[in-house]
Amino acid sequence: MTMRLTSFFTASALGVGNGESLSNYLRVSAPGMAEMSGDIPGRSIWFGSVKCDLPSVPERHWNMRSNRLLQLALESEPSFGALVRRYGADRVGVVLGASNTGVDEAQGCIDEWLSSGAAEPPDRFDFSMLELGTPSLFLKERLGAKGPAYTISTACSSAAKAFGSARRLIERCVCDAVVTGGVDGRCRFAMNGFHALGALSEGRCRPLAEDRDGINLGEGVALFAMEREGGGVALRGVGESSDAYHATAPDPEGRGAESSMRAAISDAGLEPDAIDYVNLHGTGTLANDAMELKALGRVFGDRLPRYESTKGLTGHCLGAAGAVEAAICALLLESGRATAALSNSFAFGGSNASVVISR
Q1: What are phi and psi of 296, to 5 degrees?
Q2: Which DSSP state fits 260?
Q3: 8 CB contacts (<8 Å, ≥6 apart)?
Q4: 11: closest CA among 137, 235, 183, 139?
Q5: C-alpha–C-alpha distance, residues 350 and 240, integer Å
Q6: CATH number at residue 176
Q7: Residue 298's CB: how many other CB atoms inside 10 A?
Q8: What is d(CA 344, CA 309) in angstroms, rounded to the nearest whole number?
Q9: pLDDT of residue 248
Q10: What is the DSSP string of 322-354?
Q11: How do strand 306-308 and strand 43-48 relate by DSSP bridges?
Q12: Where are the beta strands (DSSP E) in the chain?
């Protein structure tokens, strides 16, 4: 079933808000991409930050950067709050993708606790910092919604999978509208994890380049209002697969990636040649980009659409990546630069998702 994405908001290293993000995309400019040091012992990395003063969130159990990013989206796009007034609180749900929630804030508290020798952690610590459901529960409270609210956490495919879950809530008449998308803030734990895997680029990441050497991480938020009818762009199809090839490495032949792309295009009721733009997962690692291009070639054959990876402009936003990149697709659709777009998100463990949106 086709759903309407009647409004959306995005913020990442590419820009804050839809207008700035599109303008910087067209200029190939990313104000938030910068080299930083101090988070990984002995090295500096490039990271994509949201460059603005985020709203405050005073409550201890909500006070984390991911929630401040969500608050930014709510204050910037009032149509999200209008959903509750239109449909009633019981008919509005929240489905987000995320992977880090408040892990960075919790790490800071635990570091302070261990170094101080205190009997208890600092007062600002709250176990909600470590709970994956926190962003969705925060957003539900701020919206005043009373429908289902949950977070999908399948690493880098989290937010892409959220679109499918949100659509099912509406298809099954559990909700009349869902606020969906993804959010992830800066997280030192994740940085060090990717460093341990040897996956971080030595400089600015170069997806698809012959000399690519790894990823840059980033943070971001993208929220969408999903409804049965209305303006905006259309969510046409969602495809998912789970190839379980390896805990961290993708299937070199890209069979799971191919399966999710074909499933999304089929779910959209389209033929491959109807797609005129593909936003690749395109991390910049040797293994991911090689397998994804193989899969792309098998899906589209000799009629390849325009394709690119935008992670050089946003960094890899992890659990939020699928939503941030779907928002870039939506910006291109709204500005007339594409008619039907496919966005890919592939994760550890072979958890794959592709989304098709169109005018």
Answers
A1: -60, -45
A2: H
A3: 18, 77, 181, 222, 223, 224, 225, 232, 327, 330
A4: 183
A5: 10
A6: 3.40.47.10
A7: 15
A8: 10
A9: 86
A10: HHHHHHHHHHHHHTTS-SEEEEEEEEGGGEEEE
A11: unpaired
A12: 3-12, 15-16, 33-40, 43-48, 92-97, 149-152, 177-184, 217-218, 220-227, 233-242, 277-279, 306-308, 340-347, 351-358
Residue 331, both tokens: 């910006």
CB atoms within 10 A of CB 41: 8
User: What are the tens digits of pLDDT across the range 218-227?
Assistant: 999 999 999 9
Q: Side chain identity at 329, as an amino acid letter?
A: C
Nearest partner of 83 among 8, 172, 5, 145, judged by Cα: 145
CA distance 86 to 177: 9
Selection from 247, 350, 330, 317 nearest residue 97 by Cα: 317
* pLDDT tens digits along 129-163: 999 999 999 999 999 999 999 999 999 999 999 99
What domain count does the chain have?
1
- Rounded-to-integer distance, Cα 287 and Cα 310, Å: 17
| Chain centre to alpha carbon of residue 277 | 18
How far is the C-alpha of 175 from the C-alpha of 90, rounded, in Å? 8
If we measure between CA atoms, which residue out of 207, 292, 296, 208 comes closest to residue 250? 292
* pLDDT for 117: 92
Residues acting as catalytic residues: 156, 281, 316
The two structure tokens encoding residue 282: 């395109």
Please tell me the distance from the alpha carbon of residue 193 to that of residue 163, in angstroms, as a whole number: 27
The residues with which 181 forms a beta bridge, in sequence order, are 96, 223
- Domain that includes residue 224, residue range: 3-358
Instruction: Work out the angle between the directed axes of helices 65-76 and 134-143 (0-180°, nearest 10).
Output: 30
Residue with tokens 């019981």: 90
